[in-house]
Amino acid sequence: MLVALIAHDKPGALPIRQENRPAHVDYLKSGSAVRQAGPLLDAEGEMCGSLIILEVANMAEAEAWAAQDPYGKAGLFEKLDLIAWNRVIG
Known about the structure:
Elements: E1 2-9, H1 14-30, E2 34-41, E3 47-55, H2 59-68, H3 70-73, E4 77-85
């Protein structure tokens, strides 16, 4: 199943994001679950969240993946949603 992970950073958390970015990118590349990933951008073009498309067996696997993300462990996110997603185009 495909799951969209949509996360919004806490206000003023750009330094946390920047500090943990290398570990987060390594984590994205470390397994086979990530299909697409990239940062959300604010009106000034600064990173302010994340959009990650996971391919997993079930929602529990998506939750486990999210729990191990270095960004989440660092307390970066104000809100994180995991939503089942159906690819139509692409």
